Structures are given as structure tokens and as C-alpha cells.
Amino acid sequence: MPKPAAVLAVLGLLLATATARAADTAAIFAAADEPSARAAWQAMWGTAPVSVAEVEGVRAVRMPCNFRGTRIERASWDRAVQLDLSACRGVQFKVFCRDASPVAHFRLFFQSGDGWYAAAFSPAEKGKWCTVAIDKDEMRIEDKPAGWSAIKTIRISAWRGSDADTEFYVADFALTGQGARIAIIRGESAARNAPSEVESVVQLTGGIARNLRDLGLEYTVINDLDLSAARLKKYALVILPHNPAMPDAAAEEIAKFVEGGGKVIAFYELHGRLRDVLGLTGGGHVTQKFPGQFASIRFAKDALPGAPPEVGQASWNITDLRPVEGKSRVAAEWFDKDGKDTGYPAVIVSDGGIYVSHVLLSDDAANKRRMLLAMAGAFLPEAWKQAAEASLAAVGRIGPYRDYQEAHLAMTRAANPTAAGTLAAATKRRAEAQGLLGAGKFPESIAAAEDAQRLMTEAYCKSQTPVPGEFRAIWCHSAFGPSGMTWDEAIKALADNGFTAVLPNMLWAGAAYYESSVLPVAPEVRQKGDQIAACLAACKTHGLECHVWKVNWNMGGRTPREFAERMKNEGRTQAGFNGKPLAAWLCPSHPENQKLEIDSMVEVATKYDVDGIHFDYIRYPDEEHCYCAGCRERFEKAVGVKVANWPADLRKDDGLRAKWLDFRRDNITRVVAAVSEAVRKARPKVKISAAVFSNWATDRDKVGQDWKLWCQRGYLDFVCPMDYTPSTAAYENLAAMQLPLAGKVPCYPGIGLSTWQPPTDAPKVIEQILAARRAGCKGFTIFELNSATVREVLPLLGKGITRTDVQSSK
Ligand SMILES: [Zn+2]
Asked: Which H or E run includes 95?
């Protein structure tokens, strides 16, 4: 609790900045003098206080990260505010940091009601003012926030990455997207009414927002808890991406908006009041009768001007709403995978808006975007022109380049002969897009601009240079390889495009996708055969290394029920600090569980001619586990003390806490050490590696994963920290932080394709490969190998950054 004096000071400031209108939000990241800045920004949990400074002509708040010699997990400051963020797209601010290397990651939080909105950010360049823009749809929901209209705290946190001090500065806080005519309604009431839907609400709202961004259409995100007809007045169009269990009050406000002339585009579940307003009837839930029943949306001719004739979407269920004669009409129907009309409406148009009978999935992205544009364009005539201008402006925005001029200049200077022809074709097509835009032919201009961007991207990929001898690995999460292809086809694609290793996930804590005599064998192995054998054969044919990946401790959903039950009954599964069982995870301190982990990995290394074995989940799930009865018994025995109040005392007594953290680490390390020892003896050439969390400094306590020690002691032959982030600066920072921890052991940091949209964005992968090289890594590991990666990413990497011709000539 802050002291009363501090509270008064904060209150004084609050009164001064009371309601944060656009004009005075800038004051939030600035202060007149040091005392008021310190009073406003409460330093949390042992963090050093802020100060006021001027950096390169910008007046800013200085945030010191006092990690050296301290134990703080993060430097963190809270500022009490009264902010209404209900009518903006998001926020932006400036950040300056000379050396972000001691920081594992930065986060911005907004507190509202009993919950938080949270997003990561990172300074894109060292020693320069960088603008950070965070859109509301990208912010995670933690607990139960009460909406964007009542933000009461801003929190900025920088997590410890190493034992060194640094500092960063923030300035110029502002709201974005305030002139928008489109409002997306995010169904945050789901956190209360339908908690299992929260993830999909966030994801689907984000999907619509991303499409609008790509189309260059400005929008606001409004929480359904903040809805009022008055608040909606300034908008012409409201989009409901996925709003399950919408509160009656919210539906009523949207209904009033439509009755007052506003328009709605609604997906999937629709509140009864809105069905009436849009002139729809029925609404039963229809699940597909066979896979592929709902495969595409086909528009009737001229039913929606500018819509593509067919849009692919593999839906598994729909809501069966029907038009009402005289009020609405079907514009598109669902067709199945064989091209047969199912008779179910996919898109219904009325005077009040447009209804789509399932959510907007991310497949067939280009046609989806076009369909959404046609829908928005039906109500906002300016949308087509804006989208055409945005498509043209996006040509050349690839990798590090901000626009066409920058990209063209850089690629021309690189004078790569294979890229030159493609670049010329891109330039020609871009000129055509310009001409079409001038002539008011918007759809044609968009098509030409999209072609130009595709060609520019190809030229960019072709202009990259491979580094011979690099370790280029990829994880494959499915034991059966990418869907729709054989192991041989997938491995050939990797080899053709210069990859050197695959890490296929062939075993879990309670399941094996090969003929195991240690673990239960998955039933699919009987039909589809031994998957290690299949993958390994393909690797031998195409010259790739095969490192078999095990998910340790975690039985996932893949373990036969009898086995999982037996583990639970024998007291071999985990329990939380709160006493709740975690039945899917084996307890790491149980000697039989350790034996099972060790034996299964040694089995793979000795039974098959693999190049390596790979640990994953080689840790506790979080700091809340494991506190089972067995852990208590074994811990008390190991340290020779009785814990009077289990488990509370482990957190109260510092000495006991330190012993407890060592005990957890030892349980994990013991397995790594034993596997390493046994495999080195039996098969000295087999490499041992691990996928590990990115922030060793805090993760060794949190999840008991001491991978620095594993490298020091020579248990590992390489290590793959999972540095999954869309920010190349953050990725490079993490890799630079990890190299010294790995020491002599090679570090091949993980690149997470699924952290950006679309995951098939090859230039983004190239940026991070270049960052790994700059940091000094001799390779990288990509997550993950699936059919989209094979189709859309590998061929573009293979054109340059991982090209094989250089390697084969050595
Ligand atoms: Zn336990």
C-alpha cells in the first residue's frame, strides 16, 4: 500500500489530468518536475524510482532497471490514471533505450476493474527514439477487466534478463485511430459469461482488425461492456467478429444504433434482438455431417458488388439463420468440398447490415480480405478508394524497408542478378496499379498492387545470401509430419531448400509414436507404422539430420486413459501450491517418473540410428507446481527438515525457499544428466539438445530449468531457446543474451512463425535469421514445419537465405 502522502500527491495529479482527452494524454509520459514524476509513477517491488530527463531533445520519464546485485524479477512502475480508451484503436508512445540487453522483455499493462490488458513492446533500435504502437485488439485479457472506458492504472514492466543495470525512457503517450468510422465490438463480457470463449474472442477480433489494417481502413475497438448508443453515434459501421453470450444491454445499444441508420456486419452467433433488427429468422446450430461439408462461400452474381465469386473457408459448423421475405436476402451459400451447394446461407444481406453464418477463419486470406472489403464497401463508399491507396502504399513494405523507394534502392544497390528481373517486373506492375488507381478502377488497382508486392517479396528473398555450414533446423509438432504429405515429401522439401535438420515430436510423457517397450504406443502406430522409422528413412535419403523430440513430463491429451489414470492413482502426477491436482503432468521428483523419462529417451537413442535426441518441456509447468505429497516427503528427506506448514512455509522462509528451488532444479537436471551419461556411453555420436525457455535468469527459479548449467557441464551439444516474438529487435536481444550463457555449446535460437500474422510471412523469418547471424549464432531453429510452411515459406527461404548451391559447391 502506498503511504497516505503519496496517495494525496497522486490524487493531486489525477485532478490535474482528470479526464484524459486526446490533448492531455501526452502528459501521462511526461512530468513537469522530478517530485511530481516520482509521485505519479510508483516504483514497485524494490524497483528504483523514475526521474525526469531530456534525451535528444525529447522530454521524457527515465525508468531505471536496477538489476545488478538485486533480486527483483522485474523493474515495474504503476501510474494511477482515469483514462477512457473506449473510442480509439490503440495507443502509441516513444521509447528510447541505449542497451536493452539486460531486459528479457518489456510490457505495457492497463488495469481496469478486476483485471488487466497487457501487451509486449520493444525498442526497435538501440540509442534512437522509437515509436511503439499497440492496438487494443492485440492486448491480452488477464482476469476480468471492466472495459476500456475506465482504465485506472498504467503499468510498465521490464523483466530481468541478466544481472546488469540499464535504463529506458518513455515519452509522448497518445491515442490512435480516433477518426474511425468503423467500430469492432470485442466481446469481453465473455470473460464473465463464457470464459472458455475468451481466447477465440480475442483471436477473431484480432483477425478482423488485421484485415482492416491491411485494407487501410481505420477502426476503433470497443468492448461490449462499454457500449452505448451515444458512444456508437460517431460510427457508420459496427462489426461483430465473434460475440458469444452478448449481454442484452449491449444488443439493445447496437439495435438502437441500427434503428438510427447505422449498419452492422455480424458473424456467427447473433443475439435475438439483433436477428429481428437485421430481419433474420431461425438460428439452429448446424455441425458438419462430414469433413468438408462447409468448404467454401459462393456468391450469387452481383449479390455483393466487388466480392470474389468464391471464398475458401473450412468451417466445421454454422448458425442456420435464414432471410425474411421483404427484409433480407441470401447473397452467398455454403458449398461442400466437391463443389455441391449445401443449401445453407453463408451470407445474408439486409438494409441494416450483413450477416455471415460462421466466424471469419484465416484460410484463403486474400479472398477473405476482398470479401470483407466488399462488405464494408457496401456501406462505406470511400472504403474502396482507401483500400486501393493502402495496397499501393504497401508495395515494398518488406522486411526492414518502410516503402517502395527504400526497398527498390536497397535491392538495386545489392545488384543481385537473380533478383533484378523480378524487381523490374514488380516495378512495372506497381506502375500499372498507380494508373488504375488514378482512373478510379479500385478493384483492378488492388489486384495489380498485390501482384507487385508478391514480386517485390520474391525479389527480396532472392537477394539474400546463404551462410555455408549453418545449422538450419525446424521443429515438427506432428509425429506424422505436415498434413497431406508423406515424411519423404516433407523432408525432400526441407533438403531442397537448404535445411540441415528436422526435430520431429515422436514421444510424450505418456505416449510413443514408435514401437516403444518403455512408453504406451499410440494406437495410430498400428495403422500408420513406426513414425521414427518413417521420418528417419526420409532423412537418410535426403541427407538431413534427425533429432527426435520428446515432450517431457507432460502427458498432453495423447496418453492412453488407462496409463494416465494409473499415474494419478499411484501418486505420480503433479499438484499445485493451491492443492489442486494437475493430472496431465508427471511429478519430476518421483523416482519412477525420472526413470521413465530417462529410459524412453535412451531407448530412442539406442534403438534408432538418429542424429540426436531433443528435450522439451524439460521443466516444471510454472512456479505453482509441484507441491504434491510425494514432493513434500522427498524434499523433507533431501534437506533433512520437516516443513510445518506445507506448502506455505516454502514461500515465507527465505532459507527454505532457496533449498526448495534447488530441489526443483535438481529433479530436472538429474534427468538431463542421466540421459546424457547413458547416451554418450552407448552412442557417443548422438547429439543431445533441448528446447528451453528464453529467460534463464528468472526461469531457473520459476520452472526449475537451469540450462546454463547443462551447457557448462557438457550435458548438451546444442541448445534452442524458444525466442518466439514478432519483434526482430527483441529476438536479437534475446539471442545476444543467451550466447554467453550457452558458452561453448552452440545456441540455435528458435524462431516462432505463429507469433506473427500471417505465419507464412517469409521476409519476417529472413529478418530473424539475419538477426541470429548478427548476434553470432551459427544457426537457428524454426517453429514449425506444417503444410503451410512447406508450401509458402520454405521455397522463399530456399531462393536466397538458405540457398543450397553455395553449400553444395564446397
Ligand atoms: Zn510432486
From this structure: strand 90-97
Q: How far is the CA of 625 from the centre of ligand 1 (A)?
A: 7
CA distance 197 to 740: 42
Instruction: Give 709 Cα–ligand 1 centroid separation in angstroms.
Output: 23
* Residue 50 pLDDT level (bands cut at 50, 70, 90): very high
632 Cα: distance to centroid of ligand 1 (angstroms): 8
Query: Which residues are bridge partners to 614 per DSSP?
Result: 549, 689
Strand partners, 353: 264
Dist. CA 588 → ligand 1 center (Å): 6
Lowest mean pLDDT among 137-146, 250-259, 670-679: 137-146
Least Cα distance to 266 among 191, 381, 348 occurs for 348
577 alpha carbon – ligand 1 mean position (Å): 10
Contact 626, 632 (CB under 8 A): no
Q: How far is CA 429 from the centre of its chain?
A: 33
- In the beta sheet, which residues pair with residue 475? 503, 783
| pLDDT surpasses 90 at 16 | no
Distance of CA 589 to the CA centre of its chain: 32
b/e per residue 424-441 (b: at least 16 CB within 10 A): ebbbebbebbbebbeeeb
Distance 604 CA to ligand 1 centre (A): 26
Q: What angle do CA 706, 709, 713 make, to 5 degrees?
A: 145
How many Å lie between the centroid of ligand 1 and the Cα of residue 629?
Answer: 7
Which residues, in sequence order, are CB contacts of 677 under 8 Å at separation 6+? none
What separation in Å is there between the alpha carbon of 519 and the centre of ligand 1? 20
Residue 135 CA to ligand 1 center (angstroms) comes to 41
Cell of 65: 532497471
Quote the pLDDT of residue 35.
87
Whether the Cβ atoms of residue 241 and residue 359 lie closer than 8 Å to each other: yes
CA of 668 to the centre of ligand 1 (A): 12
